[in-house]
Design goal:
Number of domains: 2
Strand content: 35-45%
Order of helices and strands: HHEEHEEEEEEEEEE
CATH class of the largest domain: Mainly Beta
Distance between the termini: 54 Å
Number of helices: 3
Radius of gyration: 23 Å
CATH superfamily of the largest domain: Jelly Rolls
CATH architecture of the largest domain: Sandwich
Length: about 190
């Protein structure tokens, strides 16, 4: 029998102090959650389709592999063209974002890097640390890398066509994939 069941059985009624403490804890958690959410900048007309997988440490190196008999080494023997090493277990995401005209992601960050491809439309990206709020635009067929690790940014669809981006994200195991942020105050929106 777990602790909750033993405290709620008729033979062992809950202690008033324990109930009060539990309710106070829940109220405090809700208060903190609501006050934090009230200060974050919510997304508008921005929908994400998320696929997640988990890997232990991952190492992919094409061309500089110790095993010269491997298929990879035969194709790229002289200079590695790709190096991809993740030392700690991580969660991996493929995220498709669909953003209507005039929509945006809201200010946010990720605890790990994102490689973002623009599938259609034009992504207009604002960096939270740019005092001049100068946008960078990425048309369909191009892309950008968001370093994550506290880098606050916003993606907006300032065009007339629907914006679709696809991102590959590497996030420390168990961490939130996206962390909403307050406006850094450098942009008028």
């Amino acid at each position: 029998m777990n602790t909750l069941q033993s405290h709620t059985s008729a033979a062992n009624p809950p202690h008033i102090g324990a109930v009060t403490t539990a309710l106070a804890s829940v109220a405090f958690t809700l208060f903190i959650g609501f006050t934090t959410a009230a200060h974050a900048t919510p997304a508008k007309d921005f929908v994400s389709d998320v696929t997640e997988a988990h890997f232990d440490p991952l190492r992919i190196i094409y061309g500089d592999d110790d095993d010269r008999d491997s298929f990879r080494s035969h194709r790229f023997e002289i200079d590695p063209k790709i190096r991809f090493v993740v030392r700690d277990p991580s969660d991996y995401y493929i995220v498709t974002n669909t953003v209507a005209a005039g929509g945006y992601s809201g200010w946010h960050t990720h605890p790990g890097p994102s490689v973002v491809l623009v599938k259609s439309g034009v992504a207009t990206v604002y960096d939270g640390d740019d005092p001049s709020c100068t946008p960078k635009t990425y048309a369909a067929g191009s892309g950008f890398v968001d370093p994550g690790d506290g880098h606050i940014h916003m993606v907006r669809n300032e065009g007339a066509a629907v914006l679709i981006t696809q991102a590959f994200q590497i996030i420390p195991t168990g961490a939130a994939r996206r962390i909403d942020a307050v406006s850094p105050g450098n942009c008028p929106f």
